[in-house]
Amino acid sequence: MLRILDVVNKYAQLADFLQARRGLLHPEDVGLQTYGERRRVPGLRREELAMLAGISAPYYARLEQGQSRNASREVLDAIATALRLDESERAHLHELARAPKRGRAVPRPRPERITPATSALLSALEGTPAIVMGRSSDVLAWNTQGHALFAGHVDQDSPAEPGRRPNMAKLVFLDARTRDLYTDWPAKARAVVGNLRLTAGRYPQDPLLAGLIGELAIRSPEFAAMWADHRIVACDVADYEMHHPTVGILTVTQQTLQSPQGDGPAVVITTAAPGSPSATALSLLSHSGRPSETAHPRESVGSRAS
């Protein structure tokens, strides 16, 4: 069984990633003949994957079991090619295999805060739905339109209090109203899981991230299944059809802006084609105002405290 909750051990993540992705490939996918033999488990065997990558089967077995921690970039690239990984998945493989520097403890990520520069950017985007998300999908801030588009049923002021911050991953998987926003909910869900996978590789010792993944795995069978298959979905730019309860159906593009170092909060901006009905619908969110229910704040399913 895959270690769903083992986030703090990068090598366990590496072992699970290799095992899961090997299980997704079949001999016929890579041109191997099986001659009708019966297989006890789905996917390629370790020795078959090793052969495709041009490395020894014992070495690959040690790597997949988390016993080898010095794989070269060339070996990892060969394995990535054999597994047919895309660019995001290949980068994730390298991140998982990268050993921490000797003699230096891996620092735990610092608490996340909104910088004055990020606040100024959010203000400049007024009129365009935008939210600022932390590494674990916590909403650190949003403008009026971002709140109205993604979570108008949640207290607009909740991101200002760390204990009450909405969490977009929890909203997508555990909140019915957020789920109903997306016509193709599975595509949005896979993007969320893929983003968490990438983040878990970068921050293997983040207790809040580990707790979030554990909670989602327990409360959502769909999340547990998506997490276990180790697919990585890059979601820097993605198009979605949304069914908004106030402005109706709209097609939008969600773009994620990240610092070059990849270690700060991300700004998610939502736009629509200029002059389109969807653009008109987004502009209406500017006049939506605060929902009356926020006069009586309550905890939402997407908050950290839930």
Question: Could you give the topology of this structure?
Answer:
Layout: H1 10-23, H2 46-53, H3 57-64, H4 73-83, H5 87-97, H6 116-124, E1 130-133, E2 139-142, H7 144-151, H8 168-174, H9 176-179, H10 185-202, H11 207-219, H12 221-228, E3 237-244, E4 248-257, E5 266-271, H13 277-284
Antiparallel strand pairs: 1-2, 1-5, 3-4, 4-5
Explained architecture:
This protein has a 5-stranded antiparallel β-sheet with strand order 2-1-5-4-3, sandwiched between helices. The longest helix has 18 residues. The protein contains 13 helices and 5 strands. It starts with 9 loop residues before the first helix and ends in a 22-residue tail after the last helix. The protein is of the alpha+beta class and 306 residues long. It folds into 2 domains: 88 residues, Orthogonal Bundle (434 Repressor (Amino-terminal Domain)), CATH 1.10.260; 180 residues, 2-Layer Sandwich (Beta-Lactamase). α2 crosses α3 and α4 packs across α5.
